[in-house]
Amino acid sequence: MANPSAVSTSGTYYIKASTSSTPACSDIEPVTVVINPFADQPFAEYIPPACDENKFSIVVGSALKPIVAGGKYIVLDKNGASIPGISPATTALNPYPATAADVSANRITFSNIPAGSGFQVHLINSSGCPSSAFTCPNTATATTIRAIPTAKAPESSEAVKKTEMAAYPIPFSDRTTLEFKSVIDEDYVINLYDLKGTMIKQLKSGKAKAGEITRVEVDGRGMAESMYLARKVSITGVSTVKLLKKK
Questions:
Q1: Do residues 170 and 150 make contact, with C-beta atoms less than 8 angstroms apart?
Q2: In which domain of life is the source organism classified (predicted)?
Q3: If 0-12 CB within 10 Å is exposed, 13-18 middle and 19+ buried, where does residue 12 land?
Q4: Residue-range domain boundaries for the chain
Q5: Which site from 59, 61, 91, 208 is most exposed, i.e. has the minimal number of CB atoms within 10 Å?
Q6: Read out DSSP for 77-140?
Q7: Alpha-carbon distance 209 to 198, whole Å?
Q8: How do the pLDDT tens digits run along the chain, 247 residues long?
Q9: Does the domain at residues 166-245 carry the CATH identifier 2.60.120.280?
């Protein structure tokens, strides 16, 4: 094996050793090499603090980046330091191990993170191999959309072309409709949250087609009068729209 560092796949390789004596002697021996893959980069959704709070939360896990069984999660601030008071506790030396309940729910909520600290999420898989970090700037590229205050659908879905997701009517009493237009074929999931970042329910998951408008109806019957957040997660990013429910 001339260059051991060039090995990138598991398998059986052969090492040849030769002497410099005359006559030269050599031997070839098989070596089994196992390459453990790096963990996939996790996904984290930023849940902003309420107007009277100074701490935020993040939700790790999505339909596209599910919670990994046997995985361990590390959440640090933007500088790579531990976050005092984060719940559940997680540090570089003591990662948070995903439980069976976490895997089943496909979500881990890390809360009590000071506003302005930023965050980065790392995953260590069951083989002990780390992932690249999902960092706070990733969420800065997400598109946050305000609701369209009208009882009519966007004319020719013009608003959907310009923003990424829209809702009408806003405010609503019984039902409202979400619209978005994807630029590529992609899987998506839309969840409904309260302003504290608690997930209420999944509204829809499916596959959106490039260039086509997808509509999702929100049934507001049984929902308390309040402000809600509908959040769409896909491979191209995160979009959020505010939904105001009034009786």
A1: yes
A2: Bacteria
A3: exposed
A4: 44-124, 166-245
A5: 91
A6: -TTS---TT-BS---SSSPEEPPHHHHHHT-EEEEEEETT---EEEEE-TTSPBPPPEEHHHHH
A7: 29
A8: 455 556 667 678 777 777 777 777 877 888 877 666 788 889 888 888 777 788 889 999 887 789 999 999 999 998 889 999 999 999 989 999 999 999 999 999 999 999 889 899 999 998 888 888 888 754 333 333 344 344 344 443 444 444 478 899 989 988 999 999 888 888 888 888 888 778 888 888 888 888 889 999 999 888 888 899 898 888 777 788 889 998 7
A9: no
The b/e string for 134-149 (b: 16+ C-beta within 10 A; e otherwise) is: bbbebbeebebbebbe
Is pTM beyond 0.85? Reply is: no
Beta-strand relationship, 175-181 and 72-76: unpaired
Short-list 72, 94, 69, CA closest to 83: 94
DSSP 51: T
